[in-house]
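Hey Z.,

So I finally got round to the adenosine-5'-triphosphate thing we talked about over coffee. Here's the setup:
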Amino acid sequence: MIILGIETSCDETGVALYDTDRGLLNHTLFSQISMHSEYGGVVPELASRDHIRRILPLIRQVLNKAQRELDDINAIAYTKGPGLAGALLVGASVAAALGYALNIPVLGIHHLEGHLLSPLLSTPAPQFPFIALLVSGGHTQLMQVNGVGQYRLLGETVDDAAGEAFDKTAKLLGLGYPGGAALSELAGQGRSGKFKLPRPMLNSGDLNFSFSGLKTAVLTLINKQSMDQQVRADIALAFQEAVVTVLTEKALAALSLTKSNRLVVAGGVGANYHLRKHLTQKAAQTGATVFYPQLEFCTDNGAMIALAGAMRMQANDTTPNDSTGSFTVRARWSLSQSKNDTFNN
Ligand code: ATP
Ligand code: FE
Ligand code: MG
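And the result:
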């Protein structure tokens, strides 16, 4: 069975073809980052228009590279939400139109389900059940994942997401948007122990997070220092260490609380080298294994949506699109509460 995956929730147009027998056949991505960076953030209207320009050529490209025809596709999975409504509508309408024309099922996938299943694109793939630490630009959550569609929220951020904190702190340090990766690179030149920043909610006794205060602490620090390149790097490192410590400790607490020994890390911040190193070391000390997506599948992509669609199809967890080819998107949508809320059209 071949599934076409389409991701358009934010500023990346992602397309992929996934074969349930052979795995990922091909995938491609167009990032709009350079277009939005001059505004210091994503401009929703520009994002929607660019998805419209890119999506059909990208679908053609993926089919060509995989040496497949439209008729070879057995189902289409698209990101139904959460995300920017206008951007989501581009992927949803293309998926619905293609599904209608080809007379095949169309599945609306939760974007976070895509992220948290993305490590299953790698080998060895984690077995269910596992704990997922989802650290992206818009979310920071710990989830208990018992199987496809079985997600229990254990804790989440009460304010900013980890990626958002990286981006805002990067901005304070004069780095571009989105600045997570650039901040991490700058931190590589930092001297450990030069500055100490708070570890928000480290001892809160629950699995929730808070990152907005950290950004304020960075701002206060910047205002007190005479800044040069070395001090910027030292602050970047202190910030990264604070975030990584809290993420690691809470993830380990989630493993211990649920008596699990498998941890999956997903989302853009999962690309952070320091987080990967620290988490893998700490988890190994407790006998747990950590699974990561390949770096290119940490941030938004079509492959994770195609995979989630394939797993839903295999679990028979789908209802075919109705005969009118109608579709909806959900700009705001909670994954753990989406169980009774159909994932499908
Ligand atoms: P969501 O999935 O919650 O809707 P999103 O799709 O925007 O949000 P992702 O694409 O998963 O989020 O991740 C983007 C985020 O990851 C950005 O905040 C970016 O700064 C951050 N990021 C990417 N690489 C790194 C890195 N190496 N270190 C830290 N943060 C990073
Ligand atoms: Fe995302
Ligand atoms: Mg993104």
